[in-house]
Model the fold of this input.
Amino acid sequence: MPKYRTDLVTRRLCAATHLDQILARAVWEEYVEDGLQAVALPQGINLVALVRHTGQALARWRRRDRGLAVAALLLPMATALALWQVVVGAQDAASIAAGVAAVTLVAAWGVAYEAELSARRAALRLGREGAPVTDLARAVDPAVEQRLESMKRANFVAYHSEVERINPFVGSGWRITEAVWDAVDVSRPAKDDQGREEKIIPFDAADLHHYLAVEMPKIVGLETLQARNRLYVRGLHVAYLGADVLPDATRPPAVVVPKQLVKTGAVQAGAGAETYLCLRMLGPGGRVVVTMHLRAHLLMPRLTWEVTAYVIPPLSERFDAVEYVPTGPARLRWHTVRTVNRGFRHTLFGAPGRLNGESTRLRRKARRLNQVRKEIRKGRTDWDYGAENGLREAVADWERMGYIERRDTSHYFKRLEQGVLLATGAFLREHRVDTSDFEDTEKRIVNAQTYNFAGPITGPAQFGSHLQQVNQQQPTPPPSGGNQPGPPGRS
Done:
Protein backbone atom coordinates (compact mmCIF):
# COMPACT_ATOMS: atom_id res chain seq x y z
CA MET A 1 0.00 0.00 0.00
CA PRO A 2 1.20 3.54 -0.68
CA LYS A 3 2.49 5.42 2.34
CA TYR A 4 3.16 9.03 3.21
CA ARG A 5 6.77 10.15 3.29
CA THR A 6 8.03 10.28 6.84
CA ASP A 7 9.10 13.88 6.20
CA LEU A 8 6.01 14.88 4.22
CA VAL A 9 5.18 18.00 6.24
CA THR A 10 8.77 19.26 6.18
CA ARG A 11 8.91 18.83 2.41
CA ARG A 12 5.58 20.61 1.93
CA LEU A 13 6.71 23.54 4.06
CA CYS A 14 10.07 23.73 2.30
CA ALA A 15 8.32 23.70 -1.08
CA ALA A 16 5.92 26.40 0.09
CA THR A 17 8.79 28.71 1.07
CA HIS A 18 9.94 28.65 -2.56
CA LEU A 19 6.46 29.66 -3.74
CA ASP A 20 5.28 31.91 -0.91
CA GLN A 21 7.37 34.96 -0.01
CA ILE A 22 5.31 35.86 3.07
CA LEU A 23 5.80 32.41 4.57
CA ALA A 24 9.53 32.47 3.81
CA ARG A 25 10.01 35.83 5.51
CA ALA A 26 8.01 34.73 8.56
CA VAL A 27 10.10 31.55 8.92
CA TRP A 28 13.36 33.48 8.57
CA GLU A 29 12.29 36.08 11.10
CA GLU A 30 11.20 33.40 13.57
CA TYR A 31 14.23 31.14 13.44
CA VAL A 32 17.20 33.12 12.11
CA GLU A 33 16.90 36.86 12.70
CA ASP A 34 18.11 38.50 15.87
CA GLY A 35 15.62 38.54 18.72
CA LEU A 36 14.94 38.11 22.42
CA GLN A 37 12.07 35.67 22.65
CA ALA A 38 12.06 31.89 22.67
CA VAL A 39 10.56 29.93 19.79
CA ALA A 40 8.10 27.08 20.07
CA LEU A 41 9.11 23.46 19.58
CA PRO A 42 9.32 22.27 15.94
CA GLN A 43 6.67 19.52 16.39
CA GLY A 44 7.99 17.12 13.78
CA ILE A 45 9.45 19.72 11.40
CA ASN A 46 13.09 19.48 10.33
CA LEU A 47 14.01 23.08 11.11
CA VAL A 48 17.49 22.89 9.60
CA ALA A 49 16.04 21.81 6.26
CA LEU A 50 13.28 24.41 6.43
CA VAL A 51 15.70 27.25 7.17
CA ARG A 52 18.06 26.13 4.41
CA HIS A 53 15.31 26.21 1.80
CA THR A 54 13.98 29.48 3.21
CA GLY A 55 17.41 31.06 2.87
CA GLN A 56 17.67 29.83 -0.70
CA ALA A 57 14.23 31.22 -1.57
CA LEU A 58 14.86 34.62 0.02
CA ALA A 59 18.23 34.92 -1.72
CA ARG A 60 16.51 34.21 -5.05
CA TRP A 61 13.88 36.90 -4.42
CA ARG A 62 16.54 39.43 -3.37
CA ARG A 63 18.52 38.80 -6.55
CA ARG A 64 15.35 39.17 -8.60
CA ASP A 65 14.31 42.40 -6.88
CA ARG A 66 17.76 43.95 -7.19
CA GLY A 67 17.77 43.32 -10.92
CA LEU A 68 14.19 44.52 -11.29
CA ALA A 69 14.87 47.62 -9.18
CA VAL A 70 17.56 48.70 -11.65
CA ALA A 71 15.18 48.05 -14.53
CA ALA A 72 12.33 49.88 -12.78
CA LEU A 73 14.50 53.01 -12.59
CA LEU A 74 16.12 52.70 -16.02
CA LEU A 75 12.94 51.94 -17.99
CA PRO A 76 11.07 55.21 -17.25
CA MET A 77 14.24 57.21 -17.82
CA ALA A 78 14.90 55.58 -21.20
CA THR A 79 11.25 55.95 -22.21
CA ALA A 80 11.16 59.61 -21.22
CA LEU A 81 14.41 60.26 -23.06
CA ALA A 82 13.05 58.60 -26.21
CA LEU A 83 9.91 60.73 -26.13
CA TRP A 84 11.94 63.90 -25.59
CA GLN A 85 14.18 63.10 -28.52
CA VAL A 86 11.11 62.60 -30.72
CA VAL A 87 9.82 66.02 -29.64
CA VAL A 88 13.09 67.77 -30.44
CA GLY A 89 13.40 65.88 -33.74
CA ALA A 90 16.48 63.78 -32.91
CA GLN A 91 15.24 60.55 -34.50
CA ASP A 92 18.53 58.63 -34.18
CA ALA A 93 18.84 59.38 -30.47
CA ALA A 94 15.16 58.55 -30.01
CA SER A 95 15.69 55.17 -31.65
CA ILE A 96 18.64 54.41 -29.40
CA ALA A 97 16.72 55.39 -26.25
CA ALA A 98 13.70 53.35 -27.37
CA GLY A 99 15.99 50.39 -27.98
CA VAL A 100 17.45 50.73 -24.48
CA ALA A 101 13.92 50.82 -23.03
CA ALA A 102 12.91 47.72 -24.98
CA VAL A 103 16.05 45.80 -24.01
CA THR A 104 15.53 46.80 -20.36
CA LEU A 105 11.92 45.60 -20.43
CA VAL A 106 12.85 42.28 -22.01
CA ALA A 107 15.74 41.78 -19.57
CA ALA A 108 13.47 42.56 -16.62
CA TRP A 109 10.91 40.05 -17.83
CA GLY A 110 13.66 37.48 -18.20
CA VAL A 111 14.84 38.09 -14.63
CA ALA A 112 11.30 37.63 -13.28
CA TYR A 113 10.75 34.53 -15.43
CA GLU A 114 13.99 32.87 -14.39
CA ALA A 115 13.29 33.49 -10.68
CA GLU A 116 9.77 32.05 -10.96
CA LEU A 117 10.93 29.04 -12.95
CA SER A 118 13.76 28.36 -10.51
CA ALA A 119 11.34 28.54 -7.56
CA ARG A 120 8.97 26.04 -9.15
CA ARG A 121 11.76 23.63 -10.03
CA ALA A 122 13.03 23.77 -6.45
CA ALA A 123 9.52 23.03 -5.15
CA LEU A 124 9.12 20.11 -7.56
CA ARG A 125 12.47 18.60 -6.56
CA LEU A 126 11.22 18.33 -2.98
CA GLY A 127 8.35 16.16 -4.12
CA ARG A 128 10.24 14.03 -6.64
CA GLU A 129 13.73 13.38 -5.38
CA GLY A 130 14.42 10.82 -2.70
CA ALA A 131 17.49 12.65 -1.41
CA PRO A 132 17.31 13.93 2.18
CA VAL A 133 15.55 17.27 2.24
CA THR A 134 18.54 18.93 3.93
CA ASP A 135 20.74 17.98 0.95
CA LEU A 136 18.53 19.82 -1.55
CA ALA A 137 19.56 23.29 -0.32
CA ARG A 138 22.80 24.95 0.76
CA ALA A 139 23.71 25.17 4.43
CA VAL A 140 23.28 28.41 6.34
CA ASP A 141 25.32 29.80 9.25
CA PRO A 142 26.67 26.82 11.27
CA ALA A 143 25.78 28.56 14.54
CA VAL A 144 22.16 28.87 13.41
CA GLU A 145 21.99 25.22 12.35
CA GLN A 146 23.55 24.09 15.62
CA ARG A 147 20.97 26.07 17.59
CA LEU A 148 18.11 24.60 15.56
CA GLU A 149 19.48 21.07 15.97
CA SER A 150 19.53 21.55 19.74
CA MET A 151 15.76 22.04 19.71
CA LYS A 152 15.38 18.31 19.05
CA ARG A 153 16.70 17.78 22.60
CA ALA A 154 14.76 20.65 24.17
CA ASN A 155 13.82 20.14 27.81
CA PHE A 156 12.92 23.76 28.52
CA VAL A 157 10.06 25.84 27.11
CA ALA A 158 9.22 29.45 27.95
CA TYR A 159 5.68 30.60 27.18
CA HIS A 160 4.47 34.17 26.83
CA SER A 161 2.14 35.58 29.47
CA GLU A 162 -0.47 36.42 26.83
CA VAL A 163 -0.90 32.79 25.79
CA GLU A 164 -0.87 31.33 29.30
CA ARG A 165 -4.64 31.48 29.71
CA ILE A 166 -5.30 29.70 26.42
CA ASN A 167 -2.32 27.40 25.97
CA PRO A 168 0.83 27.45 28.08
CA PHE A 169 2.00 24.44 26.05
CA VAL A 170 2.80 26.86 23.27
CA GLY A 171 2.91 25.38 19.79
CA SER A 172 0.89 22.27 20.70
CA GLY A 173 -2.23 23.26 18.74
CA TRP A 174 -5.86 22.68 19.69
CA ARG A 175 -6.76 21.48 23.18
CA ILE A 176 -8.95 18.37 23.08
CA THR A 177 -9.24 17.53 26.76
CA GLU A 178 -8.09 18.76 30.13
CA ALA A 179 -8.55 16.66 33.25
CA VAL A 180 -7.24 15.80 36.68
CA TRP A 181 -7.53 12.08 37.31
CA ASP A 182 -8.89 10.78 40.58
CA ALA A 183 -6.35 10.65 43.38
CA VAL A 184 -5.15 7.26 44.62
CA ASP A 185 -3.70 6.22 47.95
CA VAL A 186 -0.01 5.29 47.58
CA SER A 187 0.83 5.05 51.27
CA ARG A 188 -0.23 1.45 51.84
CA PRO A 189 2.53 -1.14 51.42
CA ALA A 190 2.05 -4.21 49.25
CA LYS A 191 2.10 -7.71 50.72
CA ASP A 192 4.40 -10.56 49.77
CA ASP A 193 3.35 -14.12 48.94
CA GLN A 194 3.09 -14.94 52.64
CA GLY A 195 0.79 -11.99 53.28
CA ARG A 196 3.40 -9.93 55.12
CA GLU A 197 3.63 -6.21 54.46
CA GLU A 198 6.68 -5.11 52.49
CA LYS A 199 8.60 -1.90 53.02
CA ILE A 200 7.71 0.79 50.48
CA ILE A 201 10.67 2.00 48.43
CA PRO A 202 10.62 5.81 48.73
CA PHE A 203 9.93 7.77 45.54
CA ASP A 204 8.92 11.23 44.42
CA ALA A 205 7.15 12.71 41.41
CA ALA A 206 10.42 13.10 39.49
CA ASP A 207 11.08 9.36 39.81
CA LEU A 208 7.63 8.62 38.41
CA HIS A 209 8.12 11.09 35.54
CA HIS A 210 11.46 9.54 34.65
CA TYR A 211 10.06 6.02 34.77
CA LEU A 212 7.26 6.86 32.39
CA ALA A 213 9.57 8.73 30.02
CA VAL A 214 11.71 5.59 29.68
CA GLU A 215 8.98 2.95 29.68
CA MET A 216 6.14 4.56 27.74
CA PRO A 217 7.59 3.97 24.24
CA LYS A 218 8.01 0.28 25.15
CA ILE A 219 4.54 -0.08 26.65
CA VAL A 220 2.55 1.81 24.04
CA GLY A 221 4.24 0.31 21.00
CA LEU A 222 3.84 3.38 18.77
CA GLU A 223 6.92 3.82 16.60
CA THR A 224 6.87 7.61 16.39
CA LEU A 225 6.15 8.22 20.08
CA GLN A 226 8.63 10.52 21.82
CA ALA A 227 8.59 10.98 25.59
CA ARG A 228 10.53 13.74 27.33
CA ASN A 229 10.31 15.67 30.57
CA ARG A 230 10.28 19.43 29.98
CA LEU A 231 10.28 22.39 32.28
CA TYR A 232 7.62 24.94 31.27
CA VAL A 233 8.20 28.44 32.60
CA ARG A 234 6.30 31.69 32.32
CA GLY A 235 8.35 34.02 30.12
CA LEU A 236 8.40 36.82 32.70
CA HIS A 237 10.06 34.50 35.22
CA VAL A 238 12.85 33.14 33.01
CA ALA A 239 15.36 35.67 34.32
CA TYR A 240 14.97 34.32 37.87
CA LEU A 241 16.22 30.83 36.97
CA GLY A 242 19.88 31.76 36.66
CA ALA A 243 22.62 31.51 34.08
CA ASP A 244 21.89 27.88 33.20
CA VAL A 245 18.62 29.01 31.63
CA LEU A 246 19.49 32.57 30.61
CA PRO A 247 23.25 32.84 30.01
CA ASP A 248 22.80 36.28 28.45
CA ALA A 249 19.82 38.44 29.42
CA THR A 250 19.95 40.13 26.02
CA ARG A 251 19.52 36.86 24.11
CA PRO A 252 16.77 34.21 24.03
CA PRO A 253 16.83 31.57 26.80
CA ALA A 254 18.43 28.16 26.39
CA VAL A 255 16.38 25.21 25.14
CA VAL A 256 18.48 22.55 26.87
CA VAL A 257 18.98 23.08 30.60
CA PRO A 258 20.54 20.89 33.34
CA LYS A 259 18.49 17.77 34.09
CA GLN A 260 18.53 18.53 37.79
CA LEU A 261 16.54 21.70 37.15
CA VAL A 262 13.93 19.73 35.21
CA LYS A 263 13.79 17.16 38.00
CA THR A 264 13.31 19.85 40.62
CA GLY A 265 10.40 21.25 38.62
CA ALA A 266 8.66 17.88 38.84
CA VAL A 267 9.04 17.61 42.61
CA GLN A 268 8.29 21.17 43.56
CA ALA A 269 6.60 23.71 41.29
CA GLY A 270 7.91 27.25 41.43
CA ALA A 271 6.28 30.52 40.47
CA GLY A 272 5.16 29.81 36.92
CA ALA A 273 7.64 26.91 36.56
CA GLU A 274 6.49 23.28 36.35
CA THR A 275 7.85 20.12 34.78
CA TYR A 276 5.58 18.05 32.54
CA LEU A 277 6.03 14.69 30.93
CA CYS A 278 5.46 15.42 27.24
CA LEU A 279 4.31 12.57 25.01
CA ARG A 280 4.34 13.41 21.30
CA MET A 281 2.99 11.16 18.59
CA LEU A 282 3.23 11.88 14.86
CA GLY A 283 0.57 10.52 12.55
CA PRO A 284 1.52 9.10 9.13
CA GLY A 285 3.78 11.57 7.36
CA GLY A 286 3.50 13.92 10.33
CA ARG A 287 0.17 15.20 8.99
CA VAL A 288 -1.28 15.16 12.50
CA VAL A 289 0.64 15.79 15.73
CA VAL A 290 -0.77 14.45 19.00
CA THR A 291 0.68 15.63 22.30
CA MET A 292 -0.21 14.71 25.84
CA HIS A 293 1.19 16.73 28.76
CA LEU A 294 1.15 15.05 32.15
CA ARG A 295 2.16 16.20 35.60
CA ALA A 296 2.23 13.93 38.63
CA HIS A 297 0.95 15.52 41.83
CA LEU A 298 2.30 13.56 44.78
CA LEU A 299 1.08 14.92 48.10
CA MET A 300 1.36 11.99 50.46
CA PRO A 301 -0.55 9.89 50.90
CA ARG A 302 -2.23 10.53 47.55
CA LEU A 303 -1.11 10.62 43.91
CA THR A 304 -2.94 12.09 40.95
CA TRP A 305 -2.18 12.99 37.34
CA GLU A 306 -2.93 16.28 35.60
CA VAL A 307 -3.59 15.43 31.93
CA THR A 308 -3.94 17.78 28.96
CA ALA A 309 -4.19 16.59 25.36
CA TYR A 310 -3.61 18.62 22.19
CA VAL A 311 -3.85 18.06 18.44
CA ILE A 312 -2.19 19.85 15.54
CA PRO A 313 -4.28 19.17 12.41
CA PRO A 314 -2.99 18.73 8.84
CA LEU A 315 -1.54 21.63 6.89
CA SER A 316 -4.01 24.12 5.48
CA GLU A 317 -5.11 23.92 1.87
CA ARG A 318 -2.77 26.63 0.67
CA PHE A 319 0.18 24.27 1.20
CA ASP A 320 -1.19 22.01 -1.52
CA ALA A 321 -0.07 24.61 -4.07
CA VAL A 322 2.93 22.49 -5.05
CA GLU A 323 0.51 19.81 -6.25
CA TYR A 324 -0.68 22.22 -8.97
CA VAL A 325 2.80 22.87 -10.36
CA PRO A 326 2.93 21.26 -13.84
CA THR A 327 5.50 18.51 -14.06
CA GLY A 328 6.11 18.43 -17.82
CA PRO A 329 8.90 20.76 -19.02
CA ALA A 330 6.77 22.44 -21.71
CA ARG A 331 3.73 22.92 -19.45
CA LEU A 332 5.94 24.12 -16.61
CA ARG A 333 7.46 26.81 -18.79
CA TRP A 334 4.12 27.82 -20.29
CA HIS A 335 2.41 28.24 -16.95
CA THR A 336 5.43 30.10 -15.61
CA VAL A 337 5.10 32.51 -18.52
CA ARG A 338 1.40 33.02 -17.70
CA THR A 339 2.15 33.64 -14.04
CA VAL A 340 4.91 36.15 -14.78
CA ASN A 341 2.78 38.01 -17.32
CA ARG A 342 -0.19 38.21 -14.98
CA GLY A 343 1.68 40.14 -12.27
CA PHE A 344 4.67 41.53 -14.14
CA ARG A 345 3.88 45.22 -13.73
CA HIS A 346 3.55 44.91 -9.95
CA THR A 347 6.60 42.64 -9.76
CA LEU A 348 8.73 45.09 -11.76
CA PHE A 349 7.74 48.43 -10.32
CA GLY A 350 7.23 47.09 -6.79
CA ALA A 351 10.83 45.88 -6.54
CA PRO A 352 12.32 49.15 -5.20
CA GLY A 353 9.58 49.35 -2.57
CA ARG A 354 10.09 45.75 -1.50
CA LEU A 355 13.82 46.21 -1.08
CA ASN A 356 13.39 49.49 0.76
CA GLY A 357 10.60 48.09 2.93
CA GLU A 358 12.69 45.13 4.02
CA SER A 359 15.68 47.33 4.84
CA THR A 360 13.44 49.70 6.79
CA ARG A 361 11.91 46.82 8.74
CA LEU A 362 15.31 45.46 9.70
CA ARG A 363 16.55 48.90 10.81
CA ARG A 364 13.45 49.49 12.93
CA LYS A 365 13.74 46.06 14.47
CA ALA A 366 17.42 46.60 15.27
CA ARG A 367 16.68 49.96 16.92
CA ARG A 368 13.85 48.45 18.95
CA LEU A 369 16.01 45.53 20.09
CA ASN A 370 18.88 47.84 21.02
CA GLN A 371 16.54 49.96 23.12
CA VAL A 372 15.07 46.95 24.93
CA ARG A 373 18.54 45.52 25.55
CA LYS A 374 19.67 48.80 27.07
CA GLU A 375 16.69 48.70 29.42
CA ILE A 376 17.44 45.08 30.35
CA ARG A 377 21.11 45.83 31.10
CA LYS A 378 20.07 48.71 33.34
CA GLY A 379 17.52 46.51 35.11
CA ARG A 380 14.62 48.76 34.20
CA THR A 381 12.37 46.17 32.59
CA ASP A 382 11.11 42.63 33.17
CA TRP A 383 11.20 41.19 29.69
CA ASP A 384 8.87 38.36 28.69
CA TYR A 385 11.09 35.81 26.96
CA GLY A 386 8.25 33.39 26.22
CA ALA A 387 7.16 32.13 22.82
CA GLU A 388 3.74 33.26 21.58
CA ASN A 389 2.86 30.54 19.07
CA GLY A 390 4.50 27.96 16.85
CA LEU A 391 4.96 27.56 13.11
CA ARG A 392 3.40 24.10 12.89
CA GLU A 393 0.16 25.20 14.53
CA ALA A 394 0.11 28.48 12.58
CA VAL A 395 -0.02 26.61 9.26
CA ALA A 396 -2.58 23.99 10.37
CA ASP A 397 -6.32 23.91 9.65
CA TRP A 398 -8.83 22.13 11.88
CA GLU A 399 -11.27 21.86 8.96
CA ARG A 400 -8.87 19.38 7.34
CA MET A 401 -9.25 16.88 10.17
CA GLY A 402 -11.04 14.20 8.19
CA TYR A 403 -12.57 10.98 9.44
CA ILE A 404 -9.30 9.04 9.25
CA GLU A 405 -7.36 11.73 11.13
CA ARG A 406 -10.00 11.94 13.87
CA ARG A 407 -10.18 8.18 14.20
CA ASP A 408 -6.40 7.72 14.35
CA THR A 409 -6.00 10.61 16.78
CA SER A 410 -8.62 9.15 19.10
CA HIS A 411 -6.80 5.83 18.89
CA TYR A 412 -3.47 7.45 19.77
CA PHE A 413 -4.94 9.20 22.80
CA LYS A 414 -6.50 6.00 24.10
CA ARG A 415 -3.21 4.15 23.68
CA LEU A 416 -1.32 6.90 25.48
CA GLU A 417 -3.88 7.01 28.28
CA GLN A 418 -3.71 3.25 28.80
CA GLY A 419 0.06 3.36 28.62
CA VAL A 420 0.24 5.99 31.36
CA LEU A 421 -2.02 3.89 33.59
CA LEU A 422 -0.10 0.67 32.91
CA ALA A 423 3.26 2.35 33.53
CA THR A 424 2.02 4.00 36.72
CA GLY A 425 0.77 0.67 38.03
CA ALA A 426 4.06 -1.03 37.20
CA PHE A 427 6.00 1.76 38.91
CA LEU A 428 3.94 1.46 42.09
CA ARG A 429 4.36 -2.30 42.16
CA GLU A 430 8.12 -1.98 41.71
CA HIS A 431 8.14 0.36 44.70
CA ARG A 432 6.09 -2.17 46.73
CA VAL A 433 2.95 -0.06 46.97
CA ASP A 434 -0.45 -1.68 47.35
CA THR A 435 -2.19 -0.94 44.02
CA SER A 436 -5.73 -2.04 44.90
CA ASP A 437 -6.93 1.56 45.21
CA PHE A 438 -5.13 2.46 41.98
CA GLU A 439 -6.75 -0.43 40.08
CA ASP A 440 -10.23 0.69 41.11
CA THR A 441 -9.47 4.25 40.03
CA GLU A 442 -7.92 3.02 36.79
CA LYS A 443 -11.22 1.48 35.69
CA ARG A 444 -13.12 4.70 36.36
CA ILE A 445 -10.57 6.76 34.40
CA VAL A 446 -10.74 4.50 31.35
CA ASN A 447 -14.54 4.57 31.36
CA ALA A 448 -14.87 8.31 31.99
CA GLN A 449 -12.15 9.88 29.85
CA THR A 450 -13.40 11.40 26.57
CA TYR A 451 -11.76 13.34 23.76
CA ASN A 452 -13.66 16.01 21.83
CA PHE A 453 -13.30 15.63 18.08
CA ALA A 454 -16.51 17.38 17.06
CA GLY A 455 -14.52 20.59 17.49
CA PRO A 456 -11.60 21.86 19.54
CA ILE A 457 -12.10 23.20 23.04
CA THR A 458 -9.99 26.17 22.01
CA GLY A 459 -7.72 27.08 19.16
CA PRO A 460 -4.06 28.04 19.40
CA ALA A 461 -3.17 31.51 20.55
CA GLN A 462 -2.70 34.35 18.05
CA PHE A 463 -1.15 37.10 20.15
CA GLY A 464 1.04 39.45 18.17
CA SER A 465 3.54 37.00 16.77
CA HIS A 466 4.75 37.68 13.23
CA LEU A 467 3.65 34.11 12.47
CA GLN A 468 0.06 35.34 12.65
CA GLN A 469 0.43 36.81 9.16
CA VAL A 470 0.93 33.26 7.88
CA ASN A 471 -2.63 32.49 9.01
CA GLN A 472 -4.14 35.69 7.73
CA GLN A 473 -2.64 35.59 4.27
CA GLN A 474 -4.98 34.43 1.53
CA PRO A 475 -4.25 30.88 0.30
CA THR A 476 -1.59 30.68 -2.38
CA PRO A 477 -3.37 30.31 -5.75
CA PRO A 478 -2.47 27.24 -7.78
CA PRO A 479 0.60 28.00 -9.95
CA SER A 480 -1.41 26.94 -13.02
CA GLY A 481 -3.32 30.21 -12.73
CA GLY A 482 -6.48 28.93 -11.06
CA ASN A 483 -8.31 30.78 -8.35
CA GLN A 484 -9.78 28.03 -6.21
CA PRO A 485 -10.78 29.49 -2.85
CA GLY A 486 -9.20 28.12 0.28
CA PRO A 487 -10.28 28.15 3.91
CA PRO A 488 -10.18 31.54 5.61
CA GLY A 489 -7.45 32.26 8.13
CA ARG A 490 -8.32 31.86 11.80
CA SER A 491 -8.82 34.93 13.89
